[in-house]
Amino acid sequence: MRKQLLSTLALVGVMALTATGCSTDTADNDDVAAPGGGGGGGGDEVITVGFAQTGSESGWRSANTESMNEAFSEENGFELVFNSADNDPAAQIAAVRSFINQGVDAIVIAPIVEDGWDDVLREAQDAEIPVILEDRTVTASDDLYASWVGLDFELEGQKAGEWAAEEFTEPTNMVVLEGTTGSAPANDRAAGFDAAIEGTPIEKIDSQSGDFTRDGGKSVMEGFLQKHGADGIDLVYAHNDDMGLGAIEAIEAAGAVPGEDIKIITIDAVRDGMQALVDGKINYIVECNPLLGETAAELVKAVLAGEEVEKTTIVEDQAFDQAAAEEALPDRTY
Ligand code: GYE
Questions:
Q1: In the chain, where the domains are located
Q2: Distance of alpha carbon 116 from alpha carbon 327, whole angstroms
Q3: What is the 59 CA–ligand 1 centroid distance (Å)?
Q4: Which of 181, 265, 288, 317 to mutate to test the pocket of ligand 1 (most atoms within 8 A of CB)?
C-alpha cells in the first residue's frame, strides 16, 4: 500500500484542492449533477452520508469531527449519519455494514486500523455505495474505494526525525509513545522517523502504544520513567500532541522538567500542543492538518455526480519550533 501510495502521490502532487481539479463545478453547495455512480445524490435531493469516525481520542480528532460536521451540513445538501467507534475496529466495520443496510448514498470512513477492510469495502461496492476515505489509509486495494483525502504520515515522521537528527549529536536515549497499534499514522510515523535517525547517536530504548490519548501517553510514560529513571531518558517522540501532553504530566510528577531534562517531539500542532511548545515544555511539533471535511464533501458530490476524481489527495503539513509556534498560535483555529 505504501509504495503504491507514494507513486500515486508523485503524480498528484500535494495540494488539497486538486481533488476536484478535474470536476467542473463542485465547490458550490447546490450544484450536484444528474444521478450517477452510487446510490443517489441527484438533483436537489439531500445526500445521505454515513460517516464512520474513529472515536474521540484526541484534540486532532475533535477538530476533524467538527470539520466534517461543518462540511456535511444540511445547508450544504447533506444528511450526515455519524458513528463514532470509540477506537474499536470491529465496531467501526459493523457501523459501515449498517450504513450499507440503511442504503445511504455514500460512506466516508476514517479507518482506525489499516488492515481488515476488504470484505466490507467489497460489500459496499456490491451495493453500489461509493466509499471515500478521510484521514487514515487502508491496506485494501484502492479499487475498493473511490478516493482518499489525508496526510503524508511518513513524511511527518521523517520531518520529526530530521529535526531530532540535527538536534542530538551526542548519545541520546529516546522513548517512543506510539499511536494506535495497526493504524496508518502509527505505522508510517514510526517508519519515517526511524529512517531519518538511522546512523545518528539516537537510540530507541523503549517504544509502546499510548493509543493516541492523553491518558495513554501519561501512563506509558510513567512506566518508562519507572523503568529507566528520568535520568535515563533524554528524548520522547510522541506520535501525537495528546500523548506528548500526557508525558509532560508524568515527567513533572517524576520531578523532572519537560522540554529541558527530557526533550519532547510530537505531531499534530493542535492548540494545546502549540501552547506547550510556546511554554517550552515541547521542543518541536510537526503539523497534521485535521481540516479535511470540505475536500471530503467535494469528493462525495463529485463521485455521486459520476465525475472522475483523484484517487489520492494529500494535504500539506508544516512544522513548528518555539518561535514559529509563538507566531502561529494566535490564529490557530483548532
Ligand atoms: O494524529 C491523532 C489522532 O489519524 C492523523 O489520529 C490522525 C491521528 C492524529 O488521534 O491525534
A1: 38-151+290-316, 153-288
A2: 42
A3: 9
A4: 288
What are the pocket residues of ligand 1 if the criterion is a CB atom closer than 6 Å to any ligand atom?
A: 57-58, 60-61, 135-136, 151, 185, 212, 240, 242, 267-268, 288
Cα-to-centroid distance, 185 and ligand 1 (Å)? 7
CATH architecture of 38-151+290-316: 3-Layer(aba) Sandwich (3.40)
For 240-281, write each residue's pLDDT tens digit: 999 999 999 999 999 999 999 999 999 999 999 999 999 999
Compute, in angstroms, the gap from residue 81 CA to the centroid of ligand 1.
21
In degrees, rounded to 5, the angle at the alpha carbon of residue 185 between the alpha carbons of residues 184 and 188 is: 80
Say how far apart CA 326 and CA 322 lie, in whole Å: 6
pTM of this structure: 0.88
Residue with cell 508525558: 247
Q: What is the pLDDT of residues 149-169, one digit of tens each?
A: 999 999 999 999 999 999 999
Q: How crowded is residue 17: how many other Cβ atoms within 10 Å of its Cβ?
A: 12
Return the best residue to mutate from 212, 213, 317 for the ligand 1 pocket (most ligand atoms within 8 A of CB).
212
We find that the CATH architecture of domain 153-288 is: 3-Layer(aba) Sandwich (3.40)
Q: Buried b vs exposed e over 252-275: b needs ≥16 C-beta within 10 Å? A: eebebebbeebbbbbbbbbebbbb
- The answer to whether the 38-151+290-316 and 153-288 domains have the same CATH topology is yes
